Amino acid sequence: MSTRELTFAQAIREALDEELARDPNIFILGEDVGAWGGVFRCTEGLYEKYGPERVIDTPLSEEGFVGLAVGAAMTGMHPVPEIMFGDFITLAMDQIVNQAAKMRYMTGGQLKVPITFRATMGAGRSSGAQHSQSWHAWFAHVPGLKVVVPSTPYDAKGLLKTALREPNPVVFFEDKVMYAKIKGPVPEEEYTIPFGKADIKREGSDVTLVALSRMVHPTLAAAEMLAKEGISAEVIDPRTLTPLDEETLIQSVCKTGGAVIVDEGYNRFGITAELAAVIAYGAFDYLDAPVERLGAMDVPIPFSPPLEFATIPDEQKIIERVHKVLEGRRR
Amino acid sequence: MAVEIVMPRMGLTMEEGTVVAWLKRENQTVAKGEPLLEIETDKSTVEIESPGEGVLSQILVKPGETVPVGAVIGYLTAPGERLQSAPSAPAVGSSSASVQSAARVAAPTALEVGLPGASSKVKASPAARRLARQYQVDLAEIIGTGPGGRVVAWNVREFAGQVIDAKQAQLVRASPVAQKAAADLSVDLRQVKGTGPGGWITRADVERSARQATVGVPAVQPPVIGEKIDLTRQQRIMAERMASSFRETPHFYLHVDVDARRLAALRENLLKRAKEHFGVHLTYTDFLVKYCALVLRQHPKVLQQWAGDGLFQMRNINIGLAMDTPNGLVVPVIHEADQLSLAEISRRRTELSERAQAGKLLPQDLELGVFTITNLGMFGIDYFDAILNPPQAAILAVGRIKERALVEAGQVIAAPMMTLSLSVDHRVLDGATAAKFLGDLVEYLENPDFAQV
């Protein structure tokens, strides 16, 4: 199997390209996705290759084009609306939550809604409070939606291809900081990655670190630094929030006795809370310290870089939490 | 509120401790966690950290004095705060037996006062609670090292191990006077029936036991010439334990030559990289610990121990290493060595060795060993037989690695060779069982790559 290095954006683009070629029902729509190739270069060249009917530029109107896409999905197409800044997915909340997520249930299965909403998340670009938020938790809260949060080019491509073959609505979150910065091996050969299967990014025995999307990278860096102190950290990436691979999380914590959950979404009522609850329930008798939750600080994300970085998790904050979990414990 | 400083319990078998030195003067300010005093137990000398922040307002027990575990030995107050009522010093142990018994009578009350959480709800992690159920131990008796004194999993594991150990040692409770008498009269305290309060062994019990023993066995006459040397605690412990081991344990010995070519090559190959990546200096002892741990896992019978009235199966592979220190022989233990990487073993061994040289070993460093390695290779010894370290069933004596003649495929060649001697307790293991263990160990040492499989 031959492998090359792709950026996160290139991996997304390749998945879209391959699936557009495979399934004539798939089409892309969104702001600047066509002739411009997407502001994050995820659809570069696809407009030229598949034409303006399958790669459609839309006005700045999330409620409009997302509604259109949900309707098209009900008629048998597989639309891929792109929300350039995930913050503005709020404008299409009704279309996603009340329409796409409900139709298959409300029609007793007569209608299916095969649709892949692609949206960005992530802070750290000094984009201000309205262009830096991570809203994946909202959709993980809604029954009827599947939620994907990949961390590597390999995972992004394999999971997006699975989403594009899925007969139900999928919200696919891509951290915009990773598009150009994160590179990784992606095989030339075709592959898909099933939903609901967590990936152990690093094996360890002293503490479990659960991280998703971009947070996997500072978490792995923290694990490397902890190894120098003699602390063996296991890093688990759930990869999909719905469905969630509870088994892998619980088994890991049963082995290590402690967990730190790292996410870029807000802490309060967030992903960190849900995953902590899953672990506390499933691994209760094995926990040797309370589960630590490290999410974004519960404030609108500041524009000023020093303030912005203070609100989001990084290596140092992760290491501090690990020390807290391991306080007084002999490994 | 004044905070009581109590004589801590370092290990389950500790009943009383001696204050060696206070590291702060009265009315001196101390920070939480700062070394406050040194105490001596029957196993070692330990530095005790301050339980809180404040002023050492009163010292009740002076250096050299012995008090029961849990007795108040001093008070810590907030700066500016005055002690409400000057408490009187607890009865202090000395060479007088009557004072001793007074101290013991006072002990239970002091214990209740001194150990918080004994009666109230214990703070423990769920993992610690699960293990306490599994090992059937009482959480209230365990000292927690987690945040706010929370009992965490390893506290229970260690405590449970001590319980097993203590049951095997048949928990000797004797006053210091009786202990001294026992040492002077060469009486094994485990064979003495105590008639003191709560079954404690008194000096009279020891003397009676010594008189009974001399009826059948002629007493060793002290030499007439030469001056008597004061024994250190470590010398006395070594003398007692080795004498009783050699007298009571039926030893047999297995010898084998090991072709160390591959082991030497592997160490050579790893030495520099281990230094760069892990900051450790790999010694042959580290490899021996690693391979012994792996082979012990396959031969659980070697972990069995003869104690009291029968055989006990030990589970954790805790390997003791005999070390030479300025104060004499000590055998600190690398716990659960089979769970550790070679680099971790090396780091642990270095740490124990440094503490042993400095006389700073903690009681738990010396406990729960199930197998011992003793290596005199560095002293140029080719091979030797070791005396078993009771209650362990086996001890491995290791000689130096030296070029010797090896016959291979009909040719005599020079190769680095090493001779091992395994001493075995014949109550626990027979020759064939011990030979299989040693054979598997040699297999690993001669084919170290195989250990990775």
Summarize the structure.
Chain A has 331 residues and is an alpha/beta fold.
Keyphrases for this structure?
heterodimer, A: 331 residues, alpha/beta, Rossmann fold, seven-stranded mixed β-sheet, five-stranded mixed β-sheet, 13 helices, globular, B: 453 residues, alpha+beta, OB fold (Dihydrolipoamide Acetyltransferase, E2P), Chloramphenicol Acetyltransferase, four-stranded antiparallel β-sheet, 19 strands
Derived from helix and strand composition plus strand pairing, the structural class of chain A reads: alpha/beta
CATH architecture of the largest domain in chain A: 3-Layer(aba) Sandwich
Question: Which assembly state applies to the chains in this document?
Answer: heterodimer
CATH class of the largest domain in chain A: Alpha Beta
Note the run of SSEs of chain B as H and E.
EEEEEEEEHHHHHHEHHEEEEEEHEEEEH
Count of domains of chain A: 2
Give a structural overview.
The complex is a heterodimer of chains A (331) and B (453). Chain A has 331 residues and is of the alpha/beta class. Chain A is built from 13 helices and 14 strands. Chain A folds into 2 domains: 3-187, Thiamin diphosphate (ThDP)-binding fold, Pyr/PP domains (Rossmann fold), CATH 3.40.50.970; 199-326, 3-Layer(aba) Sandwich (Rossmann fold). In chain A, the strands form 3 sheets. Chain A has a 7-stranded mixed β-sheet, sandwiched between helices. A 5-stranded mixed β-sheet of chain A has the order 9-11-10-13-14, with helices on both faces. A two-stranded antiparallel sheet of chain A has the order 1-8. Chain A is globular and about 60 Å long. By secondary structure, chain B is an alpha+beta fold. Among the domains of chain B are: 1-115, RNA polymerase II/Efflux pump adaptor protein, barrel-sandwich hybrid domain (OB fold (Dihydrolipoamide Acetyltransferase, E2P), Beta Barrel), CATH 2.40.50; 251-452, Chloramphenicol acetyltransferase-like domain (Chloramphenicol Acetyltransferase, 2-Layer Sandwich), CATH 3.30.559.10. The longest helix of chain B is centred in the N-terminal third of the chain and has 18 residues, at 97-114. The N and C termini of chain B lie far apart (60 Å). At the A-B interface, loops of A face α2 of B.
